[in-house]
Design a protein that fits this description.
Layout (H helix, E strand, L loop, with lengths): L12 H4 L31 E6 L10 H14 L1 E3 L6 E9 L3 E8 L2 H23 L11 E4 L3 H12 L1 H4 L42 H4 L20
Antiparallel strand pairs: 1-4, 1-5, 2-3, 3-4
Helix pairs in contact: 2-3
Length: about 230
């Protein structure tokens, strides 16, 4: 009886190299940008901390003309309808730094958030490119966002956003919040009441969620001399 031939086994690249190994593969560069993994789920009850970073080498945003463009874009984007019939987006607080922006926003869902922030990025890029007389990308990567689920997280984030200039070593304004932030209109300070000419609401939307309206106050109002913890937000 003829001997049965054994079926040849196809060797894959992994088998040839000894199989998959823990920790193998190309390492992620620290400059490779925002992760493209699925984002956290957003609801109407969870504020979101958003960071948008500019490309390297562009002029700073804390200058009169650049700030004017950013202000106009924020004001135009402060409230938008969402992707569904009852969807919505609100831009509640902002901080404009040299090469990035911090935003505290609310949205009914992930799609409404994404649509509004992409629209804001387009408006900012067009305005800034027109101001600078250039073409090309303005933002280094897609926005980064962190969902805030507790009163303490919200309070820490508000402090982080309003005092972000100090973290970057920028000059501090005596006895008043950074004027490149919505802290000028913020009513949760212990030791600051805005001037009469700021009696209007500013370019931001009003908070809707309990966490961003009153929940964060469980841990105390903010003051203009916070103890820094850069990992708090």
């Amino acid at each position: 009886m003829a001997k049965r031939k054994e079926r040849a086994e196809q060797l894959t690249f992994d088998r040839l190299m000894g199989g998959r190994r823990k920790g193998a593969g190309r390492k992620k560069s620290p400059d490779s940008g925002v992760s493209h993994l699925k984002r956290e789920t957003i609801t109407k009850d969870t504020p979101v901390h958003v960071t948008m970073k500019l490309e390297q080498g562009l002029p700073g945003l804390r200058q009169a003309h650049e700030y004017s463009v950013a202000w106009g874009a924020i004001e135009a984007a402060r409230e938008r309808a969402g992707t569904s019939a009852d969807g919505w987006f609100a831009l509640v607080h902002y901080s404009i730094q040299g090469d990035h922006l911090h935003l505290v926003v609310e949205a009914s869902d992930n799609d409404s958030l994404s649509r509004a922030l992409n629209g804001l990025a387009v408006r900012l890029a067009r305005g800034l490119n027109k101001l600078w007389g250039r073409a090309g990308s303005v933002f280094a990567d897609r926005y980064h966002c962190k969902v805030l689920r507790t009163p303490r997280q919200v309070r820490n984030t508000l402090r982080y956003v309003f005092e972000n200039a100090r973290r970057h070593g920028l000059p501090r304004f005596r006895n008043r919040p950074d004027p490149f932030t919505s802290g000028l209109w913020f009513t949760g300070w212990k030791d600051y009441v805005h001037d009469g000419f700021l009696s209007w609401e500013g370019p931001m939307a009003q908070a809707r969620s309990w966490l961003l309206r009153v929940g964060w106050k469980r841990h105390g109002l903010l003051d203009l001399r916070p103890v820094w913890d850069i990992n708090a937000a």
